[in-house]
Amino acid sequence: DKKALLKALIRLSISTGLYPECLALQEVTSEPYPCSAGHFSEVFKGTFCGRSVAIKVVRIYQISDIEQVLKVFYRESILWSQLSHQNLLPFYGIYHLDHVDRRLCFISPWMENGNVREYLAKKPNVDCLLLISDILHGVRYLHGEDVVHSDLKGDNILVTPAGRACLADFGLSKLIDSKVLSWTSLYSTAQQGGTPRWQAPELMNPKSEHIAANKESDMYSFGGICYEGLTGKVPFHEHPRDSAVCLKVMAGQRPVKPTQNQVISSRWGMMENLWPIMERCWAHDPLKRPSASEILMQEPFLGLETTDSRPPNTWKGLTASQLRNAMRVVKTSG
């Protein structure tokens, strides 16, 4: 089946240090300076086949690790290239920025609307519930494919031109030998990943180093995303130091339910329905957290799609290779 073939392809890539030639892009141009940067990557705006793209460049500090980094990079590229959903950022391919140190790049569409927190700040009257539903659909799809995101937060959720949320990852949170990408399959050698304010307590516990990010820890992070959507602030915003947040979460504390004046006025009506879901997502016992599928089958998400008037994203149902071919056809005909 498809999953077995994908696993075989990934094993072949890891053993040989090679990747499918169809993933390599040769027509990418980049602006000279990055638009944003994290600890392990920089994001440039560029063009591919006449369209704006995001170029995520992986920072490599130790040349001796390059072969291991390449294996992980190719594995994740193969995995991402086989995923296709309208609430998942498409993957166009990989690109070597230069031939000196073989700097590695992920190429994906450029999202002018930015991330979901920025978008909601600019447009406070947008239906936040639809965006949260988008996120749930994206998470449900990933988990159905046995893929864990491991770093869900507002910064890693972009808004498409159609006004739909899609899961992305512009930070590299997973480290193996100090260099790993955070789109991680359940059958990979993932370790802990994520950002403290959204991270599940079991991933913070120093006595549980063997515990990997999983579907349940993704659902814990989803609760934090809901908090961002309702308040426009990150979880535990009243505590500026991440170390203090870690101690509180490990002690069993969770974000405090906001009062009406702390919630964006147009979203207060969602609070009573969403807060119990958020509390379940923040359960200390991972097995007590609901799945994305369970949440979508209850209020306020049940039947929400029937009232959704937004247009579909242009890539709906297309794989990475189909997207590249479609773009080249458009460019040729233009």
Question: What does this 3D model show about the protein?
Answer:
This protein has 334 residues and is an alpha+beta fold. The chain folds into 2 domains: 2-111, Phosphorylase Kinase, domain 1, CATH 3.30.200; 116-307, Transferase(Phosphotransferase) domain 1 (Transferase(Phosphotransferase), domain 1), CATH 1.10.510.10. It is built from 10 helices and 10 strands. Strands 1, 2, 3, 4, 5 and 6 form a 6-stranded antiparallel sheet that branches. Helix 1 runs antiparallel to helix 2 and helix 4 runs antiparallel to helix 6.
- Helical content stands at 25-40%
Total count of strands: 10
Distance between the termini: 38 Å
Task: State the assembly state of the protein chains.
Answer: single chain
Poorly predicted segments: 170-193
Look at the structure and give the mean pLDDT: 81
CA radius of gyration: 20 Å
> Which CATH C-level class of the largest domain is it?
Mainly Alpha
Q: From the coordinates shown, what is the CATH architecture of the largest domain?
A: Orthogonal Bundle
Q: Secondary-structure element sequence?
A: HEEEEHEEHHEEEEHHHHHH
Count of distinct structural domains: 2
CATH 4th-level superfamily of the largest domain: Transferase(Phosphotransferase) domain 1
Q: Quickly give the structural class.
A: alpha+beta
Main beta sheet strand tally, sense and closure = 6 strands, antiparallel
| DSSP summary: helix tally | 10
User: Which fold name is given in CATH as the topology of the largest domain?
Assistant: Transferase(Phosphotransferase), domain 1
Overall body shape: globular
Tell me what portion of residues adopts beta-strand conformation.
5-15%
